[in-house]
């Protein structure tokens, strides 16, 4: 009787990476890992908490004739909450729409703005649900969510639905270099201007080359402000 043929490792993996709801023998969910790769290969986004607010900044790749505003890496959810996305922007758009509805439902129901963490949890719950149902795929997008409600807060939601809170953080292809700058130079209670300087330095470390067309920038203090093209151009003069 012939010896049973050993299945090569790549073939063994194929049995587990075609279905989202199946764990591999090592306890891995390959489809979620692939979704994380979509985030890791996207242009860099980062956030910094400063005294009284949160700054979000994201780089994007633009072709010469493309209208910059049509690539939305930065979105307003409510007056006090903004999202920087990294990964598949079509997935980001559907989750942003979901988040806006949740914020409005809370406002109509309770007559007050939604707490940032409550919104983050709603988004993360929806993302996590897409990691355990057959016939679908996970969202291939990661979020940095900044909000102010009494105090400034910065959260990350990854494609598994995991929530992490940060003082400063970066995601995307330049995250490693950007995080190194953030870790070395971040200080609690820093001013708005210092936060902008740090964020720009970290983004340049991650992306090497940026311009006013290829950057989205938002600051959330009492209210969210997304910088206009003219404001970004003026700001970037300082950084060459």
In short:
This protein is α+β, with helices and mostly antiparallel strands and 240 residues long. It has seven helices and ten strands. The protein has one domain: Aminohydrolase, N-terminal nucleophile (Ntn) domain (Glutamine Phosphoribosylpyrophosphate, subunit 1, domain 1, 4-Layer Sandwich).
User: What radius of gyration results from the CA coordinates?
Assistant: 20 Å
Stretches where pLDDT falls below 50 for ≥5 residues? none
Shape: globular
How many separate domains make up the residues? 1
> How many DSSP helices?
7
Name the CATH superfamily classification.
Answer: Aminohydrolase, N-terminal nucleophile (Ntn) domain
Write down the secondary-structure element order. Answer: HHEEEEHHEEEEHHEEH
List descriptors.
7 helices; single chain; alpha+beta; 5-stranded antiparallel sheet; 240 residues
């Amino acid at each position: 009787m012939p010896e049973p043929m050993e299945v090569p490792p790549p073939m063994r993996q194929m049995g587990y990476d075609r279905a989202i709801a199946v764990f591999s023998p090592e306890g891995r969910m390959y489809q979620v890992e692939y979704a994380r790769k979509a985030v890791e290969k996207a242009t860099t986004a980062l956030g910094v908490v400063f005294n009284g607010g949160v700054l979000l900044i994201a780089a994007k790749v633009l072709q010469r004739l493309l209208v910059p505003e049509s690539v939305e890496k930065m979105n307003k959810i409510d007056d006090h909450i903004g999202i920087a996305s990294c990964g598949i922007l079509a997935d980001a758009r559907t989750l942003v729409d979901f988040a806006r509805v949740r914020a409005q439902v809370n406002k109509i129901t309770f007559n007050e703005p939604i707490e940032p963490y409550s919104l983050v949890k709603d988004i993360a719950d929806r993302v996590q649900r897409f990691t355990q149902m057959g016939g679908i795929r996970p969202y291939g997008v990661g979020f940095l969510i900044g909000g102010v409600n009494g105090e400034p807060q910065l959260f990350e939601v990854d494609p598994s639905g995991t929530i992490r809170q940060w003082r400063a953080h970066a995601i995307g292809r330049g995250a490693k270099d950007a995080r190194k700058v953030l870790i070395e130079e971040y200080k609690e209670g820093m001013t708005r201007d210092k936060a902008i300087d740090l964020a720009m330095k970290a983004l340049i470390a991650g992306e090497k080359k940026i311009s006013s067309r290829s950057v989205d920038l938002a600051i959330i203090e009492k209210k969210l402000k997304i910088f206009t093209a003219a404001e970004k151009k003026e700001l970037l003069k300082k950084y060459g």
